[in-house]
Structures are given as C-alpha cells and as structure tokens.
C-alpha cells in the first residue's frame, strides 16, 4: 500500500518568518471533470478555514464550489446550494484530515473542453498563459509561509475525440508536466503531479488516453495516478462527468496518489522482478462473488498481485471492483464485456501480508446462466501501474479463432502477464510465447481460462500470442507489462 509518512515539502513560495499555521497550496487543473459538474448534495463541505483564489482575484474562504477562473460562466460558477462541484472537495477533506495543523489554499484553473488539440492547454498558448497567470498571481499573494504542495490534473476527454490528438497525447501531457513545473512559482522537478484516470462508461473515454494517464508514474518522476476504479467503478450522471458519490471517492484517490507521487523520486529500475505461481479459481454465480483460500505466495512489502477477472452470460457483465483480503485492487484499462462474451479485465495492487486470502469480485450483473473465474499471480520487485502507454493491450475474437494476439511494448527485464479466455469443445491446449503458463476450466467443460507470464528479453514492440489446438469462440486476451522497481 502507499506509504503515508513521507514529506511532501517543496520550496516555499516565500521564506519570510510567520507564526501563522502553515499554508499548503494545491493547483487543480484540467477540464470540466476537474472543475466539476455534479449537483450539490450538501453531504460534505470544504474544510473549515480552507481558502481559494476567488473571482475577486484574492484569497477568500471556499464557498460551495472552487472557483476556476474568468472563463467559467456564471451558471457553472454560482456559489449557492445547487452549485456544480467536483472531486477537489473530497481531496481537500482527506488532505486536511491527514494534516490537521495546516490551512489549505486551492487554485482552480480547469476549464470545460480544454485539451491540447484545441490549444487550450498547449504551453505558451493564450489559454495556458492565462491559467499560468492566475496560478502565479495567487501564489504571489499567498501567505508568507505558503508552500506549493502539488498540482492535481484531470483531463483528456477533448483529445480522446481526435485521432491525431490521441497519437500525440503522451508527448503533450509529458510536456505539460515539465512546463508547469518550470513555469509555476515555487514549483520544480520534484513538485508532486497527480494525474486522474478516466471512466470507461464515459462517452469521451478512449483506451489510448487512459493508458497514457495510468502509466505516467513509471515515465515521470514525482507523479501519481488517481484511480477511478477504487473502491468501485465511478458512476456518471450525464454520461461524461462523475456524480457526487464518485467525486467523493475520486477525491480520496487523489490524496492517495499525492502520497504515491512523493514516494516516486525516480523512474529508473534498480532491481529484478520475480514471481510466485499462477492460480485459477472459479467464482460462484453471484453479484458479489467470493472465493476463499486464494494462494498469494510469500508475504513481502513489495508483493504485487495481478488478478484477471473473466465472466460470461447472455447479458454483458462488467466487474465493478476486486478486493484481496479486504484490500481494493486497481483496474488496468477498461472492464471488458460483451453479450455472451468471455470478458477479461485485469487488476493489480499491493498485498504485503498473508499467504492466502479471500478474493471478492463485485459485478454489475450476473444472471442465471452466468459463469466467472479469476487468475491470480503474485509478483515481486515490480512498480505499480503499467510500464508505459504501450504496457496494456486487449484483443477479442467474436466468431472463433485458434490464435489470439495482443500488441504491447516491453523492455528487457520488464514483466509480461497475459490472460486469455474463451469457449471451445473442451479445454484447448495453448502454446504461448511466455515461459510460465497455466490452463484450466472455469465452471464447465467448455469455458477455458489461460494465463501466461514471463520477463521480456527484447526491447520494443512485442506481440503476445496464444495458439490453441482447437477453435475458441467469444474469446478475449488481455496483457499488461510491469516495470522493475
């Protein structure tokens, strides 16, 4: 799990002496998911004493909603009981609870529809400069003992709609992190930068954007990933934006990811990855399915479990959450579903203690003829999250095939795990281009699950391939690449 005793200190904006409580400053940036569109519930408020850079261009107490700049309309930015709000409020409460002696100062600079394709977040452009001016003005007027503690980012919907923008998104986001760290007063290369994951049910979701965001902690030092699948999948009120409950959970994920960013001083690898044995376990037919006695391998502080979930029925089935011994796992990519399809969804997470545990999988549906199973593999010496933007892939075959392949990218010493599932006349014999394999049935004589794993010996593009000795229908393959610590 994340270490929570680490210092998040950055260079103070000013070093003038002050006896006032410490002021911790955060920038909230991105698009409308960052600024928020959920209807007010009055279930929580910003912490007492928290301040924001208000429409008056001055530090004021936060009202019902964080102000994000002159580009917001009055209808969105209204400070009343029905105001739209986002995850910044839950983040503020989680951070304040962990740091009770500080005064939070929040600077909002998110704007709806902002991206790189439309130039609104392109460094040097007019919109970027306007946001930067707002940030630096707020920092210049901050209390003498103010310290910039991090930049919190959620964006990608606009760029997901443009194939050219998707192709350049990794370079654009990486460049933005560097630009903000260079241009913001008091920031630097070690300023924590948190990037939020995206919602698979959103009309603006694209796997390429999600892969870039989820892999940044393995590509940029002092970055963290805020997971929208923990403790359960985000719910949306309009097909794009998270509702109040999902914002509350996502804000807590941003706080955990901030700690993760502080514990991520380098993306260099110094160790080697090893594994335990793969295990396969059928799940009972239930909306919340549990299996006890799942083997976890040897306990270790760096133990990472990779869990593959498969489910099929005559309706589409989507896993909502996975927990191992009560610890919630993080989803890689998107839940894979389909009518009568054998979906394959990958999860991962740190589980340091115990040699066996109960695994719980919650589904959104599972009717009378549904079947489900999991594959579990303990991995040691691996970093959290996919190794790169090409470190996750998924492939499907609806009509039937004897070969399933998925393209990934891996460097020597990086670890590849792949999981395939499908229906055949009997358990098919599988030949995979990875050394560790396991095949078994999931509940009946036709539903097969196949796992494979191993270290990469080459650099660059790689195709994980399962070759079967008989035809599989409704088949799915998912693969993930992990980087050594």
Automatic annotation (TrEMBL):
<keyword id="KW-0378">Hydrolase</keyword>
<dbReference type="Pfam" id="PF03629">
    <property type="entry name" value="SASA"/>
</dbReference>
<dbReference type="InterPro" id="IPR052940">
    <property type="entry name" value="Carb_Esterase_6"/>
</dbReference>
<protein>
    <submittedName>
        <fullName>Sialate O-acetylesterase</fullName>
    </submittedName>
</protein>
<feature type="domain" description="Sialate O-acetylesterase">
    <location>
        <begin position="23"/>
        <end position="259"/>
    </location>
</feature>
<dbReference type="InterPro" id="IPR036514">
    <property type="entry name" value="SGNH_hydro_sf"/>
</dbReference>
<dbReference type="InterPro" id="IPR005181">
    <property type="entry name" value="SASA"/>
</dbReference>
């Amino acid at each position: 799990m994340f270490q929570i005793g680490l210092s998040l200190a950055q260079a103070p904006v000013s070093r003038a002496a002050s006896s006032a409580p410490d002021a911790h400053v955060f920038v909230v940036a991105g698009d409308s998911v960052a600024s928020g569109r959920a209807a007010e519930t009055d279930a929580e408020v910003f912490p007492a004493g928290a301040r924001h850079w208000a429409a008056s261009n001055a530090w004021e107490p936060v009202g019902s909603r964080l102000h994000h700049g002159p580009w917001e309309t009055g209808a969105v930015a209204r400070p009343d009981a029905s105001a739209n709000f986002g995850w910044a409020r839950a983040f503020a409460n989680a951070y304040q609870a962990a740091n009770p002696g500080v005064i939070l100062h929040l600077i909002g600079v998110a704007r709806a529809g902002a991206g790189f394709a439309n130039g609104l977040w392109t460094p040097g452009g007019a919109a970027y400069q306007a946001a930067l001016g707002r940030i630096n003005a707020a920092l210049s007027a901050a209390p003498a003992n103010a310290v910039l503690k991090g930049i919190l980012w959620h964006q990608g919907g606009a760029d997901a709609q443009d194939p050219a923008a998707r192709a350049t998104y990794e370079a654009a986001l990486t460049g933005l992190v560097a630009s903000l760290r260079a241009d913001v007063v008091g920031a630097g290369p070690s300023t924590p930068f948190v990037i939020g994951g995206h919602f698979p049910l959103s009309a603006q979701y694209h796997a390429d954007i999600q892969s870039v965001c989820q892999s940044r902690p393995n590509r940029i030092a002092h970055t963290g990933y805020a997971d929208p699948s923990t403790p359960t999948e985000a719910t949306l009120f309009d097909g794009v934006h998270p509702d109040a409950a999902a914002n509350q959970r996502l804000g807590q994920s941003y706080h955990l990811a901030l700690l993760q960013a502080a514990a991520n001083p380098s993306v260099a690898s110094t160790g080697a990855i090893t594994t335990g044995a793969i295990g396969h376990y059928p799940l009972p037919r239930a909306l919340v399915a549990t299996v006890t006695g799942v083997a976890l391998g040897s306990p270790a502080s760096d133990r990472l479990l990779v869990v593959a979930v498969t489910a099929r029925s005559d309706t589409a089935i989507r896993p909502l959450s996975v927990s191992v011994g009560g610890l919630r796992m993080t989803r890689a990519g998107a839940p894979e579903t389909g009518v009568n399809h054998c979906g394959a969804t990958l999860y991962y997470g740190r589980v340091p203690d115990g040699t066996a545990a109960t695994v719980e999988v919650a589904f959104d549906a599972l009717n009378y003829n549904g079947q489900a199973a999991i594959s579990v593999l303990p991995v040691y010496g691996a970093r959290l999250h996919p190794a790169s933007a090409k470190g996750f892939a998924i492939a499907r075959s609806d009509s039937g095939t004897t070969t399933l392949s998925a393209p990934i990218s891996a460097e020597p010493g990086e670890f590849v795990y792949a999981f395939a599932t499908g229906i055949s006349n009997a358990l098919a014999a599988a030949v995979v281009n990875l050394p560790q394999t396991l095949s078994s049935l999931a509940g009946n004589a036709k539903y097969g699950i196949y796992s494979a794993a191993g270290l990469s010996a080459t650099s660059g593009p790689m195709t994980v391939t399962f070759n079967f000795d008989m035809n599989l229908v409704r088949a799915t393959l998912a693969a993930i690449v992990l980087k050594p610590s």
